[in-house]
Amino acid sequence: MALPRDERITSDIDAYFDAHERTSLLRFITCGSVDDGKSTLIGRLLYESQQVFEDHLAALEADSRRIGTQGGDLDFALLVDGLAAEREQGITIDVAYRFFATEKRKFIVADTPGHEQYTRNMVTGASTADLAVILVDARKGVLTQTRRHSYLVSLLGIRRVVVAVNKLDLVGYSEDVFDRIESEYRAFAAGIGLTEIACIPVSALRGDNVIASSPNTPWYHGPTLLGHLELVDVEDEARDRPFRMPVQWVNRPDHDFRGYCGTIVGGTVRTGQPIQVLPSGRRSRIARITTYDGDLDEAVVGQAVTLVLEDEIDVSRGDVVCEEGRAPQVADQFEAHVIWMHEREMFPGRPYLMKVGPMTVGVTLSRPKFKVNVNTMEHLAATTLALNEIGVCSLRLNQAVPFDPYSENRDMGGFIIIDRFTNATLGAGLLNFALRRADSVQWQSVDVDKAARAVLSGHRPCAVWFTGLPGAGKSTISNLVEKQLHALGAHTYLLDGDNVRLGLNRDLGFTAVDRVENIRRVAEVTKLMVDAGLIVLVSFISPFAAERRFARELLEVGEFCEVFVDAPLEVVETRDPKGLYRKGRRGELVNLTGVDSPYEVPEHPEIRIDTVHVSASAAADMVVDQLRAMGVLS
Prior knowledge:
Blueprint: H1 8-11, H2 13-22, E1 24-32, H3 38-48, H4 54-67, H5 84-89, E2 96-101, E3 105-111, H6 119-126, E4 131-137, H7 144-155, E5 160-166, H8 175-190, E6 196-201, H9 225-231, E7 244-246, E8 249-254, E9 257-263, E10 268-270, E11 274-278, E12 282-291, E13 294-296, E14 298-300, E15 304-309, E16 320-323, E17 329-340, E18 351-356, E19 359-365, E20 370-373, E21 378-380, E22 390-403, H10 410-413, E23 414-418, E24 425-434, H11 437-440, H12 450-457, E25 462-467, H13 474-487, E26 492-496, H14 497-501, H15 512-531, E27 535-539, H16 545-553, E28 560-566, H17 569-575, H18 580-585, E29 607-610, H19 616-629
Parallel strand pairs: 1-3, 1-4, 4-5, 5-6, 25-27, 25-28, 26-27, 28-29
Antiparallel strand pairs: 2-3, 7-16, 8-9, 9-15, 10-14, 11-12, 11-16, 12-13, 12-15, 17-22, 17-24, 18-19, 18-23, 19-22, 20-21, 20-22, 23-24
């Protein structure tokens, strides 16, 4: 049954478009377990609401005969599943967004995958949704994936849920089956904070209770699915919250105009309103609210505007213009839920980038306090997060940012984690609250500083970082370098990988996560020793480029000298002074660099030493000469 066509389409198209422009927009997602009929349901909605063009309908008819799953009848899922792999397998892999509209409301729907391995895609679709339609196969009832997606919906701040009990035609339109599923789901949902729930019996394939009430369910007296979606109240609660506008761009076309552009993510702003700019804390008032169509007296959440202030104050991209007296918090350490979305696991202590609003800042994540078994809601011990896992971590940023908890404002409390080298999105997260430890722990200034210690020692401080495969010759060369520096009267200390692991880092293993933490600790110790005025010789495999860069960035320019001790794997295996490679090849030693754990070759070291052709003593001379060239040694 199709919806009736608005007569104004043919009689008064301008009136139709004017009315359509003023209708509200509902963003919703469909989710649930595999093959519950999500794509079919959306396809049915598109078809019945007359949102399928004639050429698309012709293609649908042809595809349904060729690759459809309904024996030649229209396979509505093909309207949504666009990837070749989706069509071949009859499943949804990526998030598919579709727009459709009725006389009462406009809709943007995200069809999200049901498979567990595509949880990250479901999170992407849910991040901007106002409502979730969770499908349950009437034959199977509430499944593990139903609970998983319901938990994610709750975590991501969606409070309105429709439980569409689908494929009711396959259980004879049984009222008992529907009642049992509704009772079981409501009991589970109450435990995760979902209370605004509507349960609707449907058959997406047959159209029962999708657009029109079905005679096959005379025992059901509630709305149809579309009827509920058209009427559900989704007034944005953010309008009643404090005013927030992150600055996206400072608009300065000439000397007479300075405006701050952005989208309002909370509350309302009016001309003459007192405001505050964070993180600086400076105050002013709104002089003008400007848009492409002219000035406004008032603007609300969701509008993109340019604000002109009464005073000339310093405002930059990433600052937040907010309501005076109801300002967000500013902090650089947080507890947060983190959803990991990359095949490579999270490395606690590794420096990443974090995008929160328009700001991009440096961030490191702690080891998870726990990860969540989203099937049982159980909290589990964890050292890292793998693909699609969710945990609670502490975050440390390299600068303070304004924020609201995610539960109060999605835009002010949501963030993504980005790889510093590839710019790949690694994870997403929700800020819970600020950690107060930063308020009570501050760097203590001292009168005797690094420069004073350098004068006393007669040379500049520096870290000489030796990296390379096991057996390449790092320890031998670094030991000879220290002997030469000692003979020259330099103040030195040698940090060797094995020695440090016998003490400071004896609690760490050799997994990728532990290797990152091993180098993070060594880098911090190196920074303190350089501050003490020493030439610090650091001899570690340090296989990951990100951690070596982290160590370099802890120091000032000219205080870090990376020495790549280079030897091919086949050469170091013949040396094998500790027998590591023999054990690794026999399977007695796992995570051995060069065998079953990667080594990332330095791209731009200060020195590269080929120990196949250069002797250890000549290599030591090269390092000392480099320190002279850098001005470390006079």
